[in-house]
TrEMBL record:
Pfam families: GST_C (PF00043), GST_N_3 (PF13417). Residues 116-255 form the GST C-terminal domain. It comes from Basidiobolus meristosporus CBS 931.73. This is Thioredoxin-like protein. GO terms for molecular function: glutathione transferase activity. CDD domains: GST_C_family.
Amino acid sequence: MPVKIYSFKQALWPGPVRLTLAEKNITDIEVVEVDLPGGENFSPEYLRINANGTVPALVNSETNKILDDSTTITEYLDEKYPGTELYPASDRAAITHWIKETHRIDGNFLAFSPADPVELEQKRAFVEGFFGGRVKALTEFIQKQDTPFYHEKLGQLKSILVAYEHPEQAQPLFDLHRAEWQKAESYLDQLDAQLASGPYIVGEKYTSADVHAIPLLVRLKSVKGDVVLEGRPNIQRYLAKVASRENFKSVYGTL
Protein backbone atom coordinates (compact mmCIF):
# COMPACT_ATOMS: atom_id res chain seq x y z
CA MET A 1 0.00 0.00 0.00
CA PRO A 2 1.50 3.36 -0.98
CA VAL A 3 -0.13 5.24 1.91
CA LYS A 4 0.76 4.49 5.52
CA ILE A 5 -0.51 6.07 8.71
CA TYR A 6 1.63 5.88 11.81
CA SER A 7 -0.40 5.58 14.97
CA PHE A 8 -0.60 4.25 18.52
CA LYS A 9 -4.01 2.95 19.57
CA GLN A 10 -3.95 4.40 23.07
CA ALA A 11 -2.67 7.81 21.98
CA LEU A 12 -5.00 10.79 21.88
CA TRP A 13 -4.55 12.45 18.51
CA PRO A 14 -4.46 9.41 16.22
CA GLY A 15 -8.10 9.11 17.35
CA PRO A 16 -9.51 11.57 14.79
CA VAL A 17 -7.63 9.80 12.01
CA ARG A 18 -8.80 6.35 13.09
CA LEU A 19 -12.40 7.59 13.37
CA THR A 20 -12.12 9.08 9.88
CA LEU A 21 -10.75 5.85 8.42
CA ALA A 22 -13.64 3.93 9.95
CA GLU A 23 -16.33 6.50 9.05
CA LYS A 24 -15.28 6.59 5.39
CA ASN A 25 -14.58 2.83 5.30
CA ILE A 26 -11.03 3.34 4.04
CA THR A 27 -9.29 -0.02 3.76
CA ASP A 28 -6.40 0.62 1.34
CA ILE A 29 -4.19 2.41 3.87
CA GLU A 30 -1.77 0.54 6.10
CA VAL A 31 -1.86 1.59 9.76
CA VAL A 32 1.53 1.15 11.43
CA GLU A 33 1.60 1.04 15.21
CA VAL A 34 4.47 3.02 16.74
CA ASP A 35 5.75 1.83 20.13
CA LEU A 36 5.36 5.03 22.16
CA PRO A 37 6.09 3.41 25.56
CA GLY A 38 9.34 2.11 24.08
CA GLY A 39 10.25 5.51 22.63
CA GLU A 40 10.15 4.35 19.01
CA ASN A 41 8.74 7.73 18.00
CA PHE A 42 12.06 9.30 19.02
CA SER A 43 14.14 7.02 16.81
CA PRO A 44 16.10 8.65 13.97
CA GLU A 45 14.08 6.56 11.52
CA TYR A 46 10.75 7.90 12.78
CA LEU A 47 12.02 11.48 13.10
CA ARG A 48 12.71 11.39 9.37
CA ILE A 49 8.96 10.85 8.95
CA ASN A 50 7.78 13.24 11.65
CA ALA A 51 10.38 15.65 13.00
CA ASN A 52 8.13 16.37 15.98
CA GLY A 53 8.33 12.76 17.12
CA THR A 54 4.55 12.57 17.45
CA VAL A 55 1.70 10.47 16.11
CA PRO A 56 -0.21 10.46 13.86
CA ALA A 57 1.74 10.83 10.63
CA LEU A 58 0.79 9.98 7.06
CA VAL A 59 3.23 9.02 4.32
CA ASN A 60 2.35 8.58 0.65
CA SER A 61 5.35 6.85 -0.93
CA GLU A 62 4.09 7.51 -4.47
CA THR A 63 3.91 11.29 -4.08
CA ASN A 64 6.44 11.66 -1.23
CA LYS A 65 3.72 13.48 0.69
CA ILE A 66 4.13 13.56 4.48
CA LEU A 67 1.52 14.95 6.89
CA ASP A 68 2.28 15.13 10.59
CA ASP A 69 -0.86 16.15 12.47
CA SER A 70 -4.44 14.97 12.84
CA THR A 71 -6.03 18.02 11.22
CA THR A 72 -4.13 17.91 7.93
CA ILE A 73 -4.43 14.12 7.78
CA THR A 74 -8.21 14.14 8.25
CA GLU A 75 -8.49 16.90 5.64
CA TYR A 76 -6.43 14.81 3.21
CA LEU A 77 -8.50 11.68 3.81
CA ASP A 78 -11.76 13.56 3.42
CA GLU A 79 -10.63 15.08 0.14
CA LYS A 80 -9.22 11.88 -1.36
CA TYR A 81 -11.86 9.33 -0.31
CA PRO A 82 -15.64 9.08 -0.84
CA GLY A 83 -18.18 8.54 1.91
CA THR A 84 -19.29 10.86 4.68
CA GLU A 85 -18.22 14.43 3.86
CA LEU A 86 -16.42 15.52 7.02
CA TYR A 87 -15.45 19.02 5.87
CA PRO A 88 -18.56 20.34 4.09
CA ALA A 89 -17.87 23.77 2.67
CA SER A 90 -20.98 25.29 4.23
CA ASP A 91 -19.73 24.46 7.73
CA ARG A 92 -16.00 24.82 7.16
CA ALA A 93 -15.50 27.87 9.38
CA ALA A 94 -17.39 26.34 12.32
CA ILE A 95 -15.56 23.05 11.94
CA THR A 96 -12.18 24.77 11.91
CA HIS A 97 -13.12 26.79 14.99
CA TRP A 98 -14.11 23.75 17.03
CA ILE A 99 -11.09 21.74 15.96
CA LYS A 100 -8.85 24.58 17.16
CA GLU A 101 -10.76 24.84 20.45
CA THR A 102 -10.41 21.08 20.98
CA HIS A 103 -6.67 21.15 20.38
CA ARG A 104 -6.20 23.91 22.96
CA ILE A 105 -6.76 21.30 25.68
CA ASP A 106 -3.72 19.22 26.62
CA GLY A 107 -5.36 15.88 27.23
CA ASN A 108 -1.98 14.17 27.36
CA PHE A 109 -0.75 16.36 30.21
CA LEU A 110 -3.97 15.76 32.13
CA ALA A 111 -3.51 12.00 31.71
CA PHE A 112 0.08 11.92 32.95
CA SER A 113 0.04 14.60 35.63
CA PRO A 114 -1.72 14.33 39.03
CA ALA A 115 -4.13 16.82 40.55
CA ASP A 116 -3.27 15.90 44.14
CA PRO A 117 -1.43 13.29 46.25
CA VAL A 118 -4.25 10.75 45.90
CA GLU A 119 -4.23 10.96 42.10
CA LEU A 120 -0.44 10.81 42.13
CA GLU A 121 -0.53 7.40 43.79
CA GLN A 122 -3.30 6.22 41.48
CA LYS A 123 -1.28 7.12 38.39
CA ARG A 124 2.18 6.19 39.69
CA ALA A 125 2.52 2.70 38.17
CA PHE A 126 1.13 3.75 34.79
CA VAL A 127 3.23 6.92 34.47
CA GLU A 128 6.47 5.42 35.74
CA GLY A 129 6.02 2.43 33.44
CA PHE A 130 5.14 4.48 30.36
CA PHE A 131 7.74 7.19 30.92
CA GLY A 132 10.44 4.78 32.06
CA GLY A 133 10.75 3.14 28.65
CA ARG A 134 10.80 6.51 26.93
CA VAL A 135 13.51 7.87 29.22
CA LYS A 136 15.61 4.76 28.56
CA ALA A 137 15.17 5.11 24.80
CA LEU A 138 16.05 8.81 24.81
CA THR A 139 19.13 8.17 26.92
CA GLU A 140 20.31 5.59 24.39
CA PHE A 141 19.58 7.88 21.44
CA ILE A 142 21.55 10.70 23.10
CA GLN A 143 24.56 8.41 23.41
CA LYS A 144 24.43 7.83 19.65
CA GLN A 145 23.38 11.29 18.52
CA ASP A 146 23.48 14.11 21.07
CA THR A 147 20.88 16.65 19.88
CA PRO A 148 18.96 19.50 21.55
CA PHE A 149 15.71 17.79 20.55
CA TYR A 150 16.54 14.69 22.59
CA HIS A 151 17.56 16.74 25.62
CA GLU A 152 14.37 18.78 25.41
CA LYS A 153 12.18 15.68 25.32
CA LEU A 154 14.14 14.03 28.12
CA GLY A 155 13.76 17.15 30.24
CA GLN A 156 10.00 17.23 29.67
CA LEU A 157 9.63 13.63 30.79
CA LYS A 158 11.80 14.08 33.86
CA SER A 159 9.93 17.22 34.92
CA ILE A 160 6.86 15.04 35.43
CA LEU A 161 8.66 11.97 36.77
CA VAL A 162 10.33 13.99 39.54
CA ALA A 163 6.92 14.57 41.13
CA TYR A 164 6.33 10.81 41.31
CA GLU A 165 9.83 10.15 42.63
CA HIS A 166 9.63 13.00 45.16
CA PRO A 167 5.97 13.64 46.06
CA GLU A 168 7.01 16.36 48.50
CA GLN A 169 8.06 18.39 45.43
CA ALA A 170 4.86 17.75 43.48
CA GLN A 171 2.86 20.89 44.31
CA PRO A 172 3.92 22.84 41.18
CA LEU A 173 2.75 19.93 39.04
CA PHE A 174 -0.53 19.76 40.96
CA ASP A 175 -1.03 23.46 40.23
CA LEU A 176 -0.32 23.03 36.52
CA HIS A 177 -2.73 20.10 36.31
CA ARG A 178 -5.51 22.05 38.01
CA ALA A 179 -4.97 25.03 35.71
CA GLU A 180 -5.20 22.78 32.65
CA TRP A 181 -8.32 21.12 34.03
CA GLN A 182 -9.91 24.55 34.49
CA LYS A 183 -9.27 25.18 30.79
CA ALA A 184 -10.82 21.81 30.00
CA GLU A 185 -13.90 22.57 32.11
CA SER A 186 -14.37 25.88 30.28
CA TYR A 187 -14.14 24.03 26.96
CA LEU A 188 -16.65 21.43 28.14
CA ASP A 189 -19.11 24.13 29.20
CA GLN A 190 -18.81 25.87 25.83
CA LEU A 191 -19.22 22.57 24.01
CA ASP A 192 -22.28 21.68 26.07
CA ALA A 193 -23.85 25.01 25.12
CA GLN A 194 -23.00 24.46 21.45
CA LEU A 195 -24.55 20.99 21.47
CA ALA A 196 -27.88 22.40 22.65
CA SER A 197 -28.63 23.43 19.06
CA GLY A 198 -27.98 20.17 17.28
CA PRO A 199 -27.24 16.48 17.60
CA TYR A 200 -23.67 17.12 16.44
CA ILE A 201 -21.22 19.94 17.08
CA VAL A 202 -22.04 22.01 14.00
CA GLY A 203 -25.67 20.95 13.80
CA GLU A 204 -27.29 18.12 11.87
CA LYS A 205 -24.13 16.79 10.22
CA TYR A 206 -21.44 14.54 11.67
CA THR A 207 -18.21 16.30 10.70
CA SER A 208 -14.52 16.50 11.47
CA ALA A 209 -15.41 18.75 14.41
CA ASP A 210 -16.86 15.59 15.94
CA VAL A 211 -14.03 13.26 15.00
CA HIS A 212 -11.62 15.63 16.78
CA ALA A 213 -13.76 16.30 19.85
CA ILE A 214 -14.69 12.68 20.51
CA PRO A 215 -11.14 11.44 21.28
CA LEU A 216 -10.63 14.34 23.69
CA LEU A 217 -13.94 13.64 25.43
CA VAL A 218 -13.01 9.96 25.73
CA ARG A 219 -9.63 10.95 27.18
CA LEU A 220 -11.10 13.46 29.64
CA LYS A 221 -13.67 10.92 30.79
CA SER A 222 -10.92 8.35 31.33
CA VAL A 223 -8.98 10.89 33.43
CA LYS A 224 -11.81 12.52 35.40
CA GLY A 225 -14.66 10.02 35.16
CA ASP A 226 -18.29 11.10 35.19
CA VAL A 227 -17.44 14.60 36.44
CA VAL A 228 -17.03 15.37 32.73
CA LEU A 229 -20.76 14.78 32.29
CA GLU A 230 -22.06 16.34 35.51
CA GLY A 231 -24.14 19.43 34.77
CA ARG A 232 -23.58 18.94 31.04
CA PRO A 233 -26.65 17.11 29.75
CA ASN A 234 -25.95 17.91 26.11
CA ILE A 235 -22.51 16.32 26.24
CA GLN A 236 -23.99 13.31 28.00
CA ARG A 237 -26.60 12.93 25.24
CA TYR A 238 -23.98 13.56 22.56
CA LEU A 239 -21.57 10.93 23.84
CA ALA A 240 -24.35 8.36 23.99
CA LYS A 241 -25.27 9.18 20.39
CA VAL A 242 -21.77 9.10 18.90
CA ALA A 243 -20.86 5.96 20.89
CA SER A 244 -23.63 4.13 19.02
CA ARG A 245 -21.99 4.84 15.66
CA GLU A 246 -20.06 2.03 14.01
CA ASN A 247 -16.89 4.09 13.60
CA PHE A 248 -16.79 4.78 17.35
CA LYS A 249 -17.30 1.09 18.15
CA SER A 250 -14.50 0.07 15.79
CA VAL A 251 -12.05 2.51 17.37
CA TYR A 252 -13.04 2.61 21.05
CA GLY A 253 -15.39 -0.31 21.58
CA THR A 254 -17.85 0.76 24.25
CA LEU A 255 -17.73 4.06 26.12
